[in-house]
């Protein structure tokens, strides 16, 4: 049972790291929207390719996110990431600890 517990803890920590990384990508993308970045810059293109599918999904589910010229999709995505980190990751860790006992 210790192997399964350690595996779940490792998966939870990996998920937490990936969510944190994606959170920073979303923050950088939101900050880039305040300036006029070069659309041919490979970093800018990467950021748009990684975030635009999730942004468009949020905009489709919540059409009010683009009201008044302000895009609230990054904020909703960040709240979703915080929820996943505090609920899913912590639940996996607690389940793994209970599995070991």
Shape: elongated
| Record field, number of beta strands | 0
How many domains, in number, for the residues? Answer: 1
- Biggest beta sheet attributes: none
Total count of helical runs of at least 4 residues = 3
Helix share, percent = over 70%
Rg over CA atoms? 17 Å
Q: If you average the pLDDT, what whole number results?
A: 93
| β-strand amount | under 5%
Instruction: Give the helix/strand class.
Output: mainly alpha
Cα end-to-end separation: 9 Å
Order of helical and strand elements: HHH
Unreliable segments (pLDDT under 50, ≥5 consecutive)?
Answer: none
Please characterize this protein's 3D structure.
The chain has one domain (2-100). 78% of the residues lie in helices and 0% in strands. It is built from three helices and no strands. α1 (2-32) packs antiparallel against α3. The chain is elongated and about 55 Å long.
